[in-house]
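> forwarded from #structure-qc
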């Protein structure tokens, strides 16, 4: 039986916190990438998000970003590999402290850090080294076919190749930047169709109409997508209809 994970970025709020959409999307996902305080979240948000995810047996993942609350971690910064490594270790440790077991399942970099590392092997390796030194049993979630995956392989770290249900792709396998009008998939039926094609045929059509190959281990639905709940629900149902097991990677 085919298997695939369905993940979502959660806990990206501050201060007075109502679970809201996060709570509604959780029944349809199998792993959660939880903000750790650098690009979003605070101790109260982290505690509540972890508690809600654990109640539903959702696999917990750290979602470390650059130290940029004002820019939501989506602005590139000039950072050294050693800084990146320590940023990741620091944020992982913060989230681990809120887990009942004191352990996590995976780590998925956020925003600009994710996109920078997807193209820069040195930064990607720094992330992987930070993960491995903290807990060598964790799984790196990284953009399919990217430098993040190569860095995980080079460090002996387990990895899950991630694809996106709600984002368009460029021909080099990177995501269309958010500031471009064709960056997002907004039609639910189109998103579902793309996901099924990615999982069953291991390919995706780029924004220019070219097909590229990829191997999806995990599908991301962005938590800040206004249609996140609808997308997650529809994708989860479609995967089950196609006989594809929705489960977190081991």
């Amino acid at each position: 039986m085919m298997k695939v994970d369905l993940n979502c970025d959660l806990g990206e709020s501050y201060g007075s916190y109502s679970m809201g959409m996060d709570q509604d999307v959780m029944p349809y996902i199998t792993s959660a990438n939880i903000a750790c305080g650098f690009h979003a979240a605070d101790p109260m948000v982290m505690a509540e998000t972890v508690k809600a995810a654990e109640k539903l047996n959702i696999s917990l993942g750290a979602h470390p970003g650059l130290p940029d609350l004002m820019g939501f971690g989506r602005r590139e910064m000039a950072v050294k590999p050693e800084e990146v490594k320590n940023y990741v270790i620091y944020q992982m440790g913060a989230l681990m402290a809120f887990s009942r077991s004191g352990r996590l399942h995976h780590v998925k970099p956020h925003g600009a850090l994710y996109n920078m590392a997807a193209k820069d092997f040195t930064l990607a390796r720094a992330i992987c080294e930070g993960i491995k030194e903290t807990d060598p049993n964790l799984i790196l979630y990284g953009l399919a076919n990217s430098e993040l995956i190569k860095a995980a392989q080079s460090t002996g770290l387990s990895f899950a190749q991630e694809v996106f249900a709600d984002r368009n792709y460029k021909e080099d396998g990177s995501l269309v930047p958010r500031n471009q009008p064709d960056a997002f998939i907004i039609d639910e039926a189109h998103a579902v169709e793309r996901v099924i094609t990615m999982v069953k045929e291991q390919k995706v059509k780029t924004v220019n109409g070219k097909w590229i190959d990829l191997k999806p281990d995990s599908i991301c639905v962005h938590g800040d997508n206004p249609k996140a709940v609808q997308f997650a629900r529809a994708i989860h149902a479609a995967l089950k209809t196609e006989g594809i097991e929705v489960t977190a990677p081991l």
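QC bot note: The radius of gyration is 17 Å. Residues 74 and 112 are 5 Å apart (CA to CA).
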